Amino acid sequence: FSLNADPRLWGHDLSPNLIEADDDLHRPDPESEARKIEFGGHAVSERGLTNVGCLALLCLGVLTLFLGYPVATFATRSPLSTFGGFSTGGLNASGQVPEIPGNWGLIDLDTPKDVYTKPSWKDSSKKMQLVFSDEFNKDGRS
């Protein structure tokens, strides 16, 4: 529903001088409220100590995350290997990466050299080059 722009036409008395039954809940009398202040309570309570303790624990966790972890990582790092090359990762002077120890290439080291190329099925004058092989001749390999 829509209301008229003029609140006086809403059909209700909106005057601040109109006293309603629940006005004390919305606008308490400051003079009577001043007498309700309690004195003599404890400055430190169990709930207050719990709140401060949780905040301290939270601050400690954030400090550990953003200060302690980077410092610990820096202090316990191991130097990077050059694999016999000149820079990190083992690039040599020609820019080539040395062969990684183990059998990590796309072509298995156990693949015979005579199967690295094969005549094409369409045109037997063209040679196809082997791009992937796995010989599966050792247990534990998939």
Report what the structure shows.
The protein is built from three helices and two strands; from the N terminus they run H-H-H-E-E. It has two domains: 7-76, no CATH class; 104-141, no CATH class. The radius of gyration is 41 Å and the shape is elongated. A two-stranded antiparallel ribbon has the order 1-2. The protein has 142 residues and is mainly alpha-helical. The longest helix is centred in the middle third of the chain and has 30 residues, at 46-75. It starts with 22 loop residues before the first helix and ends in a 13-residue tail after the last strand.
Offer a concise description of the structure:
The chain crosses the membrane at residues 49-72. Its main location: membrane. With 142 residues, the protein is mostly helical.
SSE arrangement:
Blueprint: H1 23-26, H2 30-34, H3 46-75, E1 117-119, E2 127-129
Antiparallel strand pairs: 1-2
Keywords: Cell wall biogenesis/degradation, Glycoprotein, Membrane, Transmembrane, Transmembrane helix
Transmembrane segments: 49-72
Pfam families: SKN1_KRE6_Sbg1
Q: List low-confidence stretches.
A: none
The strand line-up of the biggest sheet is: 1-2
Strand content: under 5%
The largest β sheet comes out as: 2 strands, antiparallel
Give me some keywords for this one.
2 strands; two-stranded antiparallel sheet; 142 residues
